[in-house]
Specification:
43% helix, alpha/beta, 11 strands, 17 helices, CMAS, seven-stranded mixed beta sheet, 2 domains
Length: 434
């Protein structure tokens, strides 16, 4: 009896708005849709049943046990725009659960091994280290959440995929943060340059100043500030691949005497008395509980009257859970946490810094992600050759899904500008100059 697609479709609240097909020949959902999910084999079915929702769908798709038809894998936006927020299973009653197991077979409820692209979840990392480090208390382990060792591993998981892959996806700027589009027609490269320039102006950079850029990536901010604003810039990153790439770019630009990117945790920077600190896309990796220490460390690195620009993905409120969701945590940003901008502003102010300006550039990130998906699609074969089909698929769905999140105001991007104000003196002008 052909029934898998019909049975699975009934588990989605309201049914799927696209076609669903299965390896037993069954069809369900919106049969007139140009887009379809196709469960190709029993392992794909088991992924869906043992991790209901986005995580199970991602596992089945990344492993090749489920196909997304009607879209390019480099840009599955049209399909995801229809199904996102509609992929959670209804919670069946005990009786319905028994009937479901009877209908689909108990073997399909045994979790398959996740695809190799999946990062170990937090509880498994802790458990494995407890087993491997005999006699040490859990709280003393080096792999507790947001320890330097575990942060380095999380950064390695996402950012050390392949510099060549990132060159294909990000384009010549090698900038993996939200761009700022001066016009609707601006190119990605123009928008990334505009973002860096805005941050330089917000920080009030002038020739001879010293800038610390923490979580600097491939050094885009460091190079822009040194080249166009005449500052001496130091960037730090936990990705060795990023640091190596950035140092080569600095040398090629002839900026060796004024710019440096260092493979280092920001907590290990010994220099101080900087005129400005930029944090562009790092706060998401810090952990909300660590905000006091994080902004306290930044404050300690600033001279009196120095400025901080914090650029961070946020939630649209300050009451939602900080975790980024199962798929993002397992496949994209392990240990990533997002919270509302109000929480970030409060943390900065509680450190003693004075907030001078705060803005949301959410819509710009949707445009940035669309451009990255375009690059992935246009360079698909080269990207697959570089990192493998599974990883390339992860990037396609992650970027398209994130684009939808920004479009729907499920996530935002905030700039918070602050000064190290001492005895009432901030050095800030009467009005903003950017």
């Amino acid at each position: 009896m052909n029934h898998i697609a019909e049975t699975i479709n009934e588990l989605f609240d309201g049914g799927l708005p696209i076609k669903l097909t299965a390896y037993d020949g069954s069809v369900a959902g919106n049969k007139d849709s140009p887009f379809a999910m196709e469960i190709l084999n029993p392992r794909g079915l088991a992924f869906l049943l043992t991790a209901p929702g986005d995580l199970g769908l991602a596992r089945a798709y990344v492993s090749g046990d489920m196909a997304l038809n009607g879209i390019h894998p480099g840009d599955p936006y049209p399909l995801l725009d229809l199904v996102l927020d509609k992929t959670d299973f209804k919670r069946p009653s005990p009786r319905e659960t028994v009937e479901l197991v009877r209908a689909l077979g108990v073997t399909n409820f045994v979790p398959p091994k996740p695809p190799p692209q999946e990062h170990l979840p937090a509880w498994r990392q802790r458990a494995e280290n407890v087993r491997n480090i005999s006699g040490r208390a859990l709280s003393a382990l080096p792999w507790t959440r947001h320890s330097p060792e575990r942060d380095a591993d999380a950064i390695h998981h996402h950012y050390d995929v392949s510099n060549t892959f990132y060159e294909y996806v990000l384009g010549p700027s090698m900038t993996y943060t939200c761009a700022l589009y001066p016009t609707e027609e601006s190119t990605l490269e123009e928008a990334q340059a505009a973002k860096y320039d805005l941050i330089c102006r917000k920080l009030g950079l002038e020739p001879g100043m010293r800038l610390l850029d923490i979580g600097c990536g491939w050094g885009g901010m460091v190079r822009h500030a040194a080249q166009h604003y005449g500052v001496k810039a130091l960037g730090v990153t936990l990705s060795r691949e990023q640091a190596n790439w950035a140092q080569r770019a600095i040398k090629a630009d002839g900026l060796d005497d004024v710019a440096e990117v260092r493979y280092s945790d920001y907590r290990d920077v010994v220099e101080g008395d900087f005129d400005a600190v930029s944090s562009i896309g790092l706060t998401e990796h810090i952990g909300v509980a660590n905000y006091p220490a994080y902004f306290g460390k930044i404050s300690s690195k600033l001279r009196d009257g120095g400025r901080l620009l914090n650029h961070c993905i946020t939630r649209p409120d300050n009451i939602s859970k900080a975790n980024a969701g199962a798929f993002i945590d397992r496949y994209v940003f392990p240990d990533g946490e997002l919270i509302g901008s109000g929480t970030i502003v409060s943390a900065i102010e509680n450190t003693g810094l004075e907030v001078q300006h705060h803005e949301n550039i959410r819509v710009h990130y949707a445009k940035t992600l669309a451009a990255w998906n375009d690059n992935l699609r246009d360079n698909w074969d080269a990207c697959v050759n570089e990192v493998g089909l599974g990883t390339a698929k992860v990037w396609g769905i992650y970027m398209a899904g994130s684009r939808i999140g920004f479009e729907r105001n499920n996530i935002q991007l905030h700039h918070v500008l602050a000064t190290k104000t001492v005895d009432g003196l901030s050095g800030y002008p009467l009005r903003h100059t950017f």
